[in-house]
Amino acid sequence: MQIPPVTRVYTTACVLTTLAVQLDLVTPFQLYFNPISILRQGQVHRLVTAFLFFGTFGFNFFFNMIFTYRYCRMLEEGSFRDRTADFVMMFLFGGIFMIAFAFFVNLLFLGQAFTIMLVYIWSRRNPAIRMNFFGILDFYAPYLPWVLLGFSLLLGNAVYVDLMGIAVGHIYYFLEDVFPRERGGFKVLKTPSILKQLLDGQNEQEYHVLPEERPGGFEWGNEGRPNQNAEVRNE
Length: 235
Hints:
Blueprint: H1 5-22, H2 35-41, H3 46-49, H4 59-77, H5 84-102, H6 111-125, E1 130-133, E2 137-140, H7 144-154, H8 159-178, H9 193-199
Antiparallel strand pairs: 1-2
């Protein structure tokens, strides 16, 4: 229960959806994004389930879930701390844009693209954090989405899925963090007051610093813990 609410609900829904497929309670054919089924048969649940299924249990599933949980939580406990309504608004923004793109691109599931969007937004809001990827690459946080894109390419995944996540993440970042600060700029994305009344004001929980936010960043491939002996520091 120390996990913030939006992260807890989303990651739990992803795990339960995959578990339901493993137990043959549902099939992926009932979950994937299908515009014809949505528009002609009223199967609106596909607008949600397309974001919840990351494939059957395996390396790809666990890899995506680790990143989804970690960066969703860091956003919610970091730049969106005590702003649950704004965080939900970001979810809605990303989901709507990806669904709009999916009508023109042959995408069955959108969860991986959504994860990359979360990673992109976090990385742009934490540009000074130094990272290490499996002891091979040292880089700053803004390069993380592109490193993941290259890793996804090595795994044989479709690159355009990651590119869509990066594109939607950049659109949100520009509208929320860049354009309002430009001369003549203004805040484009406004969270409805009713959403703030429902969700905000109940987030006074202790913040636990995650490994990535400690000095030296985070090293993948080291059992999920920072390597204190090989810590990367800024000179």
